[in-house]
Please model this.
Amino acid sequence: KCPRAARRYKLGTGYCQRYMAYGMAEPCIDLKDLSCVEVCPVGCIHPTEDEPGFADVKQLYIDPEECIDCDACVEACPVDACFAEDQLPDEWASFAQRNADYYAGR
Model:
């Protein structure tokens, strides 16, 4: 069974697919602008300023289990660091795995 927010269905099959909807890329490194955090309706972007580890990471990450594909982060990001996974530029393709790795042990 897919997690609540990460339910995706192949049209006509009913099979659940899990994939990272959105992720952060290179422009977020060392900037960590919180505009995306403020507009996210499900609070899936971490760490926030008041969470442990905020100062220890170089960028923000989108939780693939909670993201609902709303696109709010893309519109809010002043440095264009948020992308749908299938729209990541080739030079930043590794950031999809970085986002997934951040949440893997949580």
